[in-house]
């Protein structure tokens, strides 16, 4: 009986151990399943996050690229705005490369390339000006033609940004023509001065005033014209001083000639009065002699010797007066040996502008 009880207890313990072992296996299996599920969930979450991140980054790149395009290009993306910079175009290119969609990527990359070319062209053009906004005196038509060649050789710029290309093209064309006119006027201004920078003696007011008229049309935009305009203004002051000095000298000579003429006329009148006095005396003597009934031949001889004296004086007086008159009329104005008439200059400037 004792043995039967012992067997019963062993069976119960065995069943309990089996139950515990089975539960442990089930828990272990469940734990593996749960780990597997958790792993799959984690992997799924990572994948979703990665995809979301990639999509977010792409959406962010597209958004950033789109903001640059809206700010730096006009609505039809045919020209750039005043806000466009090289830094913006480099950023646009960077954002475009991050976009996976090939069409969007190609679109933004093309805009970045042509936008960069347009900004560089704009910077070259603005570099032609000084801090005051005027075109530099070192500006030449040769320099402008080189910049224009860079513009025209960029076919992508002309096809992708046609509005900007057209504006820049005609801007260069018009500037080249005006720059040639400014150089043309500068040559004529330089011709008015000698090697030491002094105004030549044969320069007239007409020459200076003519050049002042043309330079006034360019002096607000071109530094070279502004400098030449100042030189011409100073040259005109020099001519005014010369004219006043010349007029003063001529007035002095005129007064001297008039005084000499008055003196000669006074001398002539005095000699005329003396002649008349001698004539009256002759008549008086002749009448007295007639009354006294002296010898007529002796009286006539004496009268003749007295009247011949003043005749020589009258001749000299007339000659001197004629010489003074000639001296008075000898002054003349300054003429210009290097004069360039207005019609010729008009024709030259029109030809330069028409050819450009």
The tally of strands reads 0
Largest sheet: none
Shape: rod-shaped
Termini, distance in Å? Answer: 133 Å
Q: From the helix content, strand content and strand pairing, which structural class follows?
A: mainly alpha
Alpha plus pi helix count: 11
Which strand-content bin applies to the residues?
Answer: under 5%
Order of helices and strands: HHHHHHHHHHH
- Would you identify the regions where 5 or more consecutive residues have pLDDT less than 50? 48-57, 305-338
Rounded to the nearest angstrom, the radius of gyration is 56 Å
Helix content: over 70%
Estimate the mean pLDDT confidence: 79
Describe this protein's structure:
This protein is an all-alpha fold. It is 79% helix and 0% strand. It has 11 helices and no strands. Helix 4 (141-153) runs antiparallel to helix 6 (162-190) and helix 6 (162-190) runs antiparallel to helix 7 (205-215). The longest helix has 71 residues, at 2-72. It is rod-shaped, with a radius of gyration of 56 Å. The N and C termini lie far apart (133 Å). The model is unreliable at 48-57 and 305-338 (pLDDT under 50). Residues 261-277 have a biased composition (Basic and acidic residues). Keywords: Membrane, Transmembrane, Transmembrane helix. Residues 240-356 are annotated as: Disordered. Residues 286-356 have a biased composition (Low complexity). Residues 242-260 have a biased composition (Basic residues).
